[in-house]
Specification:
The complex is a heterodimer of chains A (about 575) and B (about 375). Chain A has about 575 residues and is mainly α. Helices cover about 75% and strands about 0% of the residues of chain A. The chains are: A mainly alpha (about 575), B alpha/beta (about 375).
Chain lengths: ~575, ~375
């Protein structure tokens, strides 16, 4: 430590000021990115003046009082959101535990496959399950009737069907977030539990679960918000059954003429209350409790021997991978090579035209590369920004850091389709002309993915024993040096998970991109959604598969690079 | 009545109907006032005339087109224009009509003028934009090929680049021809309960259908229709996708363009032309005030109004819009607009039509469970 102190060579006063400056910059950026658009969103929500006139000519509460008429949509939203969050957390916790804490066979392969649903646009999952489970044309139901069955064996257009698809595809983030926390956990605690006679399941429930509680709760909040703002599954599966949720209702309100933006904004803003209640609950649960699992004592990640049970655990993970990866992708591949997707193949229905059309669209080709570049930049800048924010919220003694946590959650609390309007108005009025360029998309992505990064990294920071950092401080290491040499290396799993999550989330972003992309900064997912609306589900399937393959290649490259870097000791 | 009707030879009666149809298509009380002058004498480029300064347009080198049409449609039209004028790069952005309008108004209120040409999917938006001074006055020499009701008043703000119209469609695997609806009133048969699709209130054409059938059959028609719990979708592609796969038995707002596209794929569907007429929706397109590339924008609009642009809109599968140009050739399948009895609000009805928008949106949303 003394050598470390010598290497820093920074007087304590300067170290403190560097810390303060960094914190001030991060807080200013967050304030600008989040509160600036929120101001315009609130302005719209209270706008009762002439339609389509900005700034508003009159203010009032009419938009909020009109929300009562849509109680049925709100109930639908809550049912689907709670059901999907519950399913996602059960899948996420169980699979994360199996793959990080047990000696399940093919652990590494399964772990990589488990994350695949998160790589793909949710539209792909919704589309695939619509091909499979639509009551009339669904492949499963066609085969069912073909073998003499009556009616529909599966109906994916029900509330539970929608929740199922949301949990499989949009809830897979829970696995990544919880998995990151579990990887950072010292197995000695579990071993101690078993030494004193607790069984494996009891250890999981009484030791593992409470220790990863911040990560699970953080994931729960994030997943809940994600489900609240979920659009694709409800659009593809709910609309045919006249089942609307808040996001699909908002989509209709902003698309019709005259657009009912104030009502959509009020609907979106009202979700702040729901989201902040969740966050308050999280803070209450995690306050004044220790979740430390990483202390000064070294540990090597070890897994529990599950005996024969490991094959049962393997079957659970394999079933999840089959339902969320293999079956949907096979379905889409099958549908994408047909003129009209039907269950039973016929030669005259076979075609490669959907791929030919997809590749012929210039906009799609450039959109794909734009998406990848934006994903890389957003993830890299985003990790630094959200890492700092998470540290400020969890570790600093800055007054008002709790408020900062609420501010960070704003973009997650409102469906992106609505938040995008706030960002559009805000950045149009901004004196620097970034509107319509690549930069506005970068700012938009950094803004909307702040909660994702902060939640992921916070879960791991809370597991870090403060004494490690204090030890560095006592030895005279500057704040920056401690951050670089103690905190960042220990946070590595969380940082990598956050990078990965933000990268993928950026590549598949839809709601904000639709409104903010310019003619030279088009991105991929809106093009896929557009194909769904204006061409055919077969062409949409082809485009979604192309995007998935490109993202998969990017992910493989990323994995190879990080592995190589780890081997040669590059990095922290 | 089904497919055969589409290729029916033009009779005297049809020609008479055509006159009525075209006269009934105006939509926008925008009867032309041709008093507006032209800034430049027309010059001939390729095989059409334009008042745009082509050299300047090429110097500007690009233009930006905002459209309600689909992504492939937007790409195809700027590409077709680019083949004729390779020195001018066309860019486009697409969004649903409402979102597109909000976007352009927000940009203008912030003093950002990026768009050169804009196209709306229905007349009320174009008229509102006109009230806000959004259009640049550009009197195209192509205007003489358009009836006054297909041009703005005064001439030069915007024009109608195409018409889309809808009848009824059914899935032939699910419905026998003798059981299929023959006219709009047949859609009220309880057998279509939970088996029929229409468009969402975002659709301009849906608004026309609501307005016209209400005129024909009275208020009770839509009340009875609502009892059948129809399903609402955003685009014709979705309607025909579902119909072809048998998810719906009948489509209550089946655009001929969508039918032709799906039929080419071998779908088992049939188109019905109701004798009471087919609701028709018009699109509106023009140069935007303070366009950053005004000459390129004018050239694009003149090209779109010319037979070259109109041929693209009429024959490209992403459009299949009927041309209202007086000398337009037949549409794919050999039919012309005048072969159909089209239903659309007349100029005199325009104020009532526009005032009814709010009622329509509320009623339609409620009917679709929104």
């Amino acid at each position: 430590m003394s050598s470390a102190l010598a290497r820093t060579g920074v007087p304590p006063g300067r170290a403190v000021s560097a810390q303060m400056v960094s914190m001030a910059v991060v807080i200013a950026v967050v304030g600008l990115f989040v509160l600036y658009p929120v101001f315009y969103l609130l302005q719209a929500a209270f706008d009762v003046g002439a339609p389509n006139v900005r700034p508003p000519t009159a203010y009032g509460l009419d938009n909020f009082s009109a929300l009562g008429k849509y109680w049925e949509i709100m109930v639908n939203t809550l049912i689907v959101t709670f059901a999907a969050t519950f399913m996602a957390l059960v899948f996420g916790f169980l699979t994360a535990w199996i793959l990080t804490r047990t000696n399940v066979p093919f652990q590494r392969t399964l772990e990589q496959l488990m994350a695949v649903p998160y790589y793909v646009t949710p539209l792909l999952g919704a589309l695939a399950w619509n091909f499979l489970g639509a009551p009339e044309s669904g492949f499963i139901n066609q085969v069912w009737r073909g073998i003499g069955g009556d009616g529909a064996l599966v109906d994916i257009t029900t509330a539970m069907g929608i929740a199922w698809v949301m949990a499989l595809f949009e809830g897979s983030v829970a696995f990544v977030m919880i998995g990151a926390v579990m990887k950072s956990m010292d197995p000695a605690l579990e071993e101690a539990s078993q030494v004193v006679g607790a069984g494996r399941w009891r250890t999981m429930l009484r030791v593992t679960l409470p220790l990863v509680a911040p990560g699970v709760l953080g994931a729960a909040i994030f997943v809940f918000a994600e489900m609240l703002g979920s659009f694709s599954a409800a659009l593809v599966l709910g609309t045919p059954a006249r089942f609307y949720v808040i996001t699909t209702a908002i989509y209709q309100f902003v698309s019709q003429y005259p657009p009912r933006l104030p009502l959509a904004a009020a609907l979106g803003v009202s979700l702040f209350a729901v989201m902040f209640a969740m966050l308050y609950l999280y803070r209450r649960v995690t306050a004044n409790r220790s979740f430390v699992t990483i202390s000064g004592k070294a540990f090597r990640p070890r897994t529990m021997d599950m005996g024969r049970l490991r094959w049962l655990l393997f079957a659970i993970c394999a079933a999840y991978v089959f339902l969320s990866v293999a079956l949907p992708i096979a379905t889409l591949v099958y549908a994408s090579v047909q003129k009209l997707a039907v269950a039973l193949p016929s030669a005259d229905n076979f075609t490669f035209d959907n791929y030919r059309t997809a590749f012929s669209l210039n906009a799609v080709r450039s959109a794909l590369s734009n998406s990848l570049v934006l994903g890389l930049v957003t993830a890299t800048v985003g990790v630094a920004l959200t890492g700092m924010l998470a540290w400020i919220i969890q570790r600093s003694r800055l007054p008002g850091r709790g408020v900062l946590e609420y501010i960070v959650m704003f973009p997650q609390a409102v469906p992106r389709l609505v938040f995008a309007f706030g960002m559009m108005w805000a950045w149009l009025a901004f004196p620097v002309p970034i509107y319509g360029t690549f930069w506005i998309l970068l700012i938009a992505y950094l803004t909307v993915f702040l909660p994702l990064g902060v939640r992921t990294i916070s879960g791991v920071i809370m597991q870090l024993d403060k004494s490690l950092e204090e030890c560095g401080q006592v030895c005279g290491a500057s704040w920056g040096y401690r951050l670089r040499t103690i905190i960042a290396p220990l946070l590595r799993p969380g940082i990598l998970a956050a990078w990965l999550l933000i990268f993928v989330a950026s590549v598949r972003e839809l709601g904000a991109s639709i409104l903010l992309m310019g003619p030279d900064s088009k991105v991929m997912t809106p093009a896929i959604a557009e194909a769904f609306f204006s061409t055919s589900s077969e062409l949409t399937a082809a485009m979604a598969l192309i995007q998935t393959v490109v993202v998969a290649i990017a992910m493989v490259l990323f994995t190879l690079i990080t592995r190589k870097a780890s081997r040669v000791g590059v990095g922290p | 009545m089904s497919d055969s009707r589409l290729t029916k030879p033009t009779t005297r009666r049809a020609a008479l109907q055509a006159g009525l149809a075209i006269a009934a298509l105006p939509f926008a009380g925008m009867f032309a006032n041709r008093a507006s002058g032209q800034s430049r004498p027309p010059t001939k480029v390729l095989d059409f005339t334009t008042t745009a300064d082509v050299a300047k347009a090429e110097q500007e080198g690009e233009f930006l087109f905002y459209t309600h049409d689909s992504e492939p449609a937007g790409a195809s039209v700027v590409e077709a224009f680019g083949k004729d004028f390779p020195k001018i790069k066309g860019k486009y952005l697409r969004a649903q009509n409402g979102a597109l309008y909000t976007k352009v108004l927000a940009e203008r209120s912030a003093g950002r003028y990026a768009v050169d040409v804009i196209q709306f999917s229905e007349p009320a938006t174009a008229l509102d934009f006109q009230k806000k001074g959004g259009w640049m006055r550009h009197v195209s020499p192509q205007s003489e090929f358009y009836a006054p009701e297909h041009l703005s008043n005064p001439v030069g703000d915007f024009f109608c680049p195409g018409v889309t119209f809808a009848g009824i469609c059914y899935n032939t695997d699910k419905v026998k021809p003798e059981e299929a609806p023959k006219n709009w009133k047949d859609l009220l048969n309880p057998r279509w309960q939970n088996a029929m699709s229409v468009k969402q209130s975002t659709s301009g054409l849906q608004f026309v259908q609501w307005f016209e059938l209400k005129k024909l059959y009275g208020d009770g028609y839509w009340k009875e229709f609502a009892k059948l719990r129809p399903r609402g979708f955003d685009s014709r592609a979705q309607l025909f996708d579902r119909l072809a796969k048998g998810d719906d038995k009948v489509c209550g707002l089946a655009e001929l363009a969508g039918y032709l596209l799906q039929k080419e794929k071998g779908a088992h569907i049939a188109f019905v032309t109701p004798p009471d007429g087919l609701p028709a929706g018009t699109l509106w397109n023009g140069v935007v005030d303070r366009a950053p590339h005004p000459e390129a924008a004018k050239l694009f609009v003149d090209w779109l109004m010319s037979p070259r642009g109109q041929a693209h809109y009429q024959t490209n599968p992403f459009f299949y819009y009927g041309s209202v140009r007086k000398d337009a050739p037949p549409m794919p399948g050999g039919t012309r607009l005048r072969d159909f009895k089209l239903l659309a609000p007349t100029a005199a009805e325009m104020p009532i039509y526009m005032a009814a928008q709010d009622t329509f949106t509320k009623e339609w949303n409620a009917m679709l469970g929104l």
